[in-house]
């Protein structure tokens, strides 16, 4: 539940020791009403009572005090936090239990203003030209422009010399992609059937409070990149652009045989281009990059040379060349791209990981592994896009690159694609095309470990040279003992850590031109609230229907690291928690604290940790598909009604009813460190 400004200005109640003095401190000094605290905002303030000494301006540490699982329908039906932080200053002074709050920037379905001053629907669907709305005509009398209930990858950024009119504070921009629309007004699934929107919202940052207010909304035209397919998580590049994703790439072999992939590629093609056969599946599954302009508009391009697979996002290392990528797939891999030139993703070398298990078979803690790297190929984006075009113009289409059969055949390699066994052969001379356009199949043929189940977000701790990977579930190909990974099933998933090293060679004994190469893969320890690993725990359903323990993570998805706070933020995408949570994991103390809860049935999305933006700190977090749950207790009819009231109107969806609105926002009340 969003706290009011008054709730952020509380009575003096906490005491800390400064040398030999006991000084009563006020939360008022730790927080300003509205948002994060500027690094200079505490300078000159005094504790309660005129004789108290002034607090120092420099914050040296923030400690998260986790909140309990929300117990009331009122709290479960909203984005809610009553978590607090302890703030430590440079002279040892500590302000205890300063409250956090959640601030909404906008919701999908809101009417905002475009750069021309016209009304525009937030999260609205458009043709790739960026201006022609896509309408929901499924129910007579309810015709309307479609808009998404699935906020996802979000980047908060700053540009020099902004020219957006009407901003009186600091101009900022938030880029958000919308993954899909769950259903139309008739209740039919719309997943994957629409060209996905990406929006740039110009923000007015209040110079006194740090509060962010939406001032202008720009829908990015995607015509030049053939539209965007199911963008999931995202990241911000070191050169200040938004890096998107295209998850669950359409299977070009399936489209070659049947015209469809997943049951929705034909619809995507029709809704995007007006024809069921116009879309080329090889145009999707890449890395779109959005460049924001000072006027709040933006351009987009796709990078075709980072491999084509179900990436959740990319994370770029401090060399501005090495890119780590997960693969949100059943039987997916771990991939790395090393660009030829810093700050440019348009050419480089693609690698896939080979894991060797060093822990015992059927490990209960997710296992431990060493990592080596198989080179798949080197290419530039232009040549791979040209290959995508030429292959699809051939009558044999995907058959130009690969052949796939259903039974064991001489010369064919057995692989599992999204958990389904098949036998595949690369056509002679088509290795480069296979490496970059049929990356899942080619990596498996080359001997990469293609066994992860839902390897999702990636985050970097640069100081310690550690990368973190969210494994949403640990099951199936990770537990069957048939390949490189053989661990015990944990449907609740876990977060893995990888040490990053210099001086590595690939499996052909060629040097890898990077100092940021993952060499290990294991789940780190947790001290609080339980002794063990950064791992969920499955259980029999409780009274609320939770089948993951509520005081442990469940199905981690988004992960983002704050270097200043030394904290990994973890967002859940779990059907095993009634409410999904954002957690704060301190990598030094190994403590885990729940800091935010999203509406029942919703997924935590759009996570980003921003340590200092004009003197304010933000943890971005949104949500998608509120009210999406099926397990039931006697009290949950009222809870579902509350969620739908807060984020409606509602949409039928099979046996469920979903809320049509999602939100972009941030966790506020965290001061800048340093």
Give your account of this protein's structure.
By secondary structure, this protein is mainly beta. It is 9% helix and 37% strand. It has a six-stranded antiparallel sheet with strand order 19-20-22-23-24-32. Strand 4 (84-89) and strand 5 form a beta hairpin. The longest helix has 13 residues, at 381-393. The protein is globular, with a radius of gyration of 25 Å. The model is unreliable at 1-53 (pLDDT under 50).
Main sheet specs? 6 strands, antiparallel
Poorly predicted parts:
1-53
Please list the strands of the largest sheet in the order they lie side by side: 19-20-22-23-24-32
Helix content: under 10%
Number of helices: 7
Strand content: 35-45%
Instruction: Characterize the overall form.
Output: globular
Radius of gyration: 25 Å
Structural class: mainly beta
Number of strands: 43
Distance between the amino and carboxyl termini: 30 Å
Task: Give average pLDDT, whole number.
Answer: 91
The oligomeric status of these chains comes to: single chain
């Amino acid at each position: 539940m969003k706290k009011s400004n008054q709730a952020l200005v509380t009575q003096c109640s906490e005491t800390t020791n400064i040398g030999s003095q006991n000084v009563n401190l006020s939360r008022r000094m730790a927080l300003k009403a509205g948002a994060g605290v500027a690094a200079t905002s505490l300078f000159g303030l005094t504790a309660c009572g005129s004789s108290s000494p002034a607090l120092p301006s420099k914050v040296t540490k923030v400690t998260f005090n986790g909140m309990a699982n929300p117990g009331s329908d009122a709290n479960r039906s909203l984005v809610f936090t009553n978590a607090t932080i302890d703030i430590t200053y440079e002279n040892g002074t500590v302000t205890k239990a300063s409250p956090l709050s959640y601030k909404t920037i906008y919701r999908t379905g809101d009417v905002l203003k475009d750069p021309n001053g016209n009304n525009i629907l937030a999260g609205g669907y458009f043709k790739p030209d960026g201006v022609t709305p896509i309408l929901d005509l499924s129910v007579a009398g309810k015709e309307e422009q479609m808009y998404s209930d699935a906020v996802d990858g979000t980047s908060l950024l700053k540009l020099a010399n902004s020219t957006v009119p009407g901003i009186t504070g600091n101009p900022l921009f938030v880029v958000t992609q919308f993954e899909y629309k769950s259903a139309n007004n008739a209740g039919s699934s719309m997943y994957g059937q629409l060209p996905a929107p990406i929006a740039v919202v110009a923000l007015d940052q209040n110079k006194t409070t740090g509060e962010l207010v939406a001032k202008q909304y720009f829908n990015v035209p995607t015509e030049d990149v053939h539209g965007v397919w199911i963008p999931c998580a995202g990241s911000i590049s070191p050169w200040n652009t938004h890096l998107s994703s295209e998850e669950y790439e359409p299977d070009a072999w399936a489209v070659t045989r049947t015209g469809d992939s997943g049951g929705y590629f034909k619809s995507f093609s029709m809704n995007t281009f007006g024809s069921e056969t116009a879309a080329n599946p090889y145009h999707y599954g890449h890395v779109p990059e959005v460049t924001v302009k000072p006027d709040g508009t933006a351009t987009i391009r796709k990078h075709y040379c980072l491999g084509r697979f179900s990436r959740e996002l990319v994370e770029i290392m401090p060399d501005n060349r090495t890119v780590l990528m997960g693969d949100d797939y059943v039987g997916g891999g771990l991939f790395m791209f090393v660009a030829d030139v810093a700050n440019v993703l348009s050419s480089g070398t693609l690698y896939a990981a080979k894991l060797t298990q060093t822990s015992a078979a059927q490990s209960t803690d997710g296992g431990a592994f060493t990592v080596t790297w198989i080179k798949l190929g080197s290419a530039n984006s232009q040549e791979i896009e040209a290959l995508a075009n030429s292959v699809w113009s051939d009558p044999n289409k995907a058959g130009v690159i690969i052949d796939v059969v259903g039974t064991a055949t001489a010369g064919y390699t057995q692989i599992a694609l999204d958990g389904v066994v098949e036998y595949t052969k690369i056509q002679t001379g088509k290795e480069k095309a296979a490496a970059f356009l049929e990356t899942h199949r080619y990596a498996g043929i080359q001997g990469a470990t293609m066994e992860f189940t839902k390897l999702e977000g990636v985050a970097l701790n640069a100081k310690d040279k550690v990368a973190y990977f969210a494994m949403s579930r640990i099951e199936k190909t990770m537990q069957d003992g048939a390949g490189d990974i053989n661990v015990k099933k944990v449907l609740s998933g876990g977060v893995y850590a990888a040490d990053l090293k210099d001086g590595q060679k690939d499996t052909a004994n060629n040097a890898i031109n990077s100092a940021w190469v993952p060499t290990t893969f294991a789940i780190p320890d947790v001290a609080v609230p339980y002794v063990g690993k950064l791992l969920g725990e499955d259980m029999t359903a409780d009274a609320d229907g939770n089948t993951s323990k509520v005081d442990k993570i469940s199905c981690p998805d988004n992960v983002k690291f704050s270097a200043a706070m030394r904290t990994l933020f973890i967002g859940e995408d779990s059907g095993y928690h009634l409410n999904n949570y954002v957690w704060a994991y301190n990598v030094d103390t190994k403590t885990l604290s729940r800091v935010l809860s999203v509406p029942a049935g919703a997924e935590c999305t759009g996570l980003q940790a921003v340590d200092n933006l004009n003197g304010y700190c933000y943890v971005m977090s949104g949500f998608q598909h509120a009210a999406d749950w099926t397990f039931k207790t006697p009290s949950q009819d009222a809870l579902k009604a509350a969620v739908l009231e807060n984020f409606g109107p509602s949409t039928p969806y099979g046996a469920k009813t979903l809320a049509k609105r999602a939100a972009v926002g941030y966790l506020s009340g965290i001061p800048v460190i340093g």
